[in-house]
UniProtKB/TrEMBL annotation:
<dbReference type="GO" id="GO:0050776">
    <property type="term" value="P:regulation of immune response"/>
</dbReference>
<dbReference type="GO" id="GO:0002250">
    <property type="term" value="P:adaptive immune response"/>
</dbReference>
<keyword id="KW-1133">Transmembrane helix</keyword>
<keyword id="KW-0732">Signal</keyword>
<dbReference type="GO" id="GO:0015026">
    <property type="term" value="F:coreceptor activity"/>
</dbReference>
<keyword id="KW-0812">Transmembrane</keyword>
<keyword id="KW-0472">Membrane</keyword>
<dbReference type="InterPro" id="IPR013783">
    <property type="entry name" value="Ig-like_fold"/>
</dbReference>
<dbReference type="GO" id="GO:0042288">
    <property type="term" value="F:MHC class I protein binding"/>
</dbReference>
<keyword id="KW-1015">Disulfide bond</keyword>
<protein>
    <submittedName>
        <fullName>CD8B protein</fullName>
    </submittedName>
</protein>
<feature type="transmembrane region" description="Helical">
    <location>
        <begin position="156"/>
        <end position="179"/>
    </location>
</feature>
<keyword id="KW-1064">Adaptive immunity</keyword>
<dbReference type="GO" id="GO:0016020">
    <property type="term" value="C:membrane"/>
</dbReference>
<dbReference type="InterPro" id="IPR007110">
    <property type="entry name" value="Ig-like_dom"/>
</dbReference>
<keyword id="KW-0393">Immunoglobulin domain</keyword>
<dbReference type="InterPro" id="IPR042414">
    <property type="entry name" value="CD8B"/>
</dbReference>
Length: 192
């Protein structure tokens, strides 16, 4: 909640990484405390799990079935900053991780860090050209894709055509009005 953000800051908000990598979540504390708790919320299992507690003396207590090889807490800057290190990452580690402190018999949670572990990360779009030795088929596919996004795209010409049509329809009453004025003027001139 609101008070938690004043007392502790958790970074980053999101982590996207690959299987077998390791990662780190930082928790900075503004007030006196006895130690930091780390929890994981699993959306898939709808389960809030206690992972590890590290007190100011550096003693660590692990939750049931929590691997000490996988999770470790590192303290920095004289008890004001703690980081949770997670190694040997696997998709089963997906979830939102919270650092937490005990304040007057309440647990205050950080803002949470959403961890997503994937076997392969999505690749950024290619900007380099493919070598000429490859078949020209990818070039044809790319040029078709480019033309869909280009000037011939229905997303471009349909609104454009509609705009031109509305403009023309708007000119009809004006043209009619000018025609009537011209005719009145012509009649006036010829009556004299």
């Amino acid at each position: 909640g609101f008070y938690a953000n004043l007392l502790l800051t958790q970074t980053p908000e999101h982590i996207l990484t690959q299987t077998n990598n390791k990662t780190e979540i930082l928790c900075e504390l503004k007030k006196e405390h006895t130690g930091v708790y780390w929890y994981r919320w699993s959306q898939e299992r709808q389960h809030f799990e206690f992972l590890v507690f590290s007190n100011t003396l550096g003693k660590t207590t692990y939750g049931t079935n929590v691997s000490q090889d996988k999770f470790s807490v590192h303290e920095a800057r004289s008890h004001s900053s703690y980081s949770l290190h997670i190694s040997h990452l696997h998709p089963s580690d997906n979830g939102t991780y919270y650092c937490s402190v005990s304040q007057s018999s309440q647990l205050l949670l950080g803002s949470g860090t959403q961890l997503s572990v994937a076997d392969a990360l999505p690749l950024p779009p290619k900007t380099t050209q493919t070598p000429l030795s490859k078949k020209p088929v990818p070039w044809i596919i790319e040029s078709k894709a480019a033309s869909k996004k280009g000037l011939c795209s229905p997303l471009v010409w349909i609104p454009l055509a509609a705009g031109v049509l509305l403009l023309l329809l708007g000119l009809i009453p004006i043209a009619h009005h000018l025609y009537r004025l011209r005719r009145r003027l012509w009649l006036r001139i010829h009556r004299q």
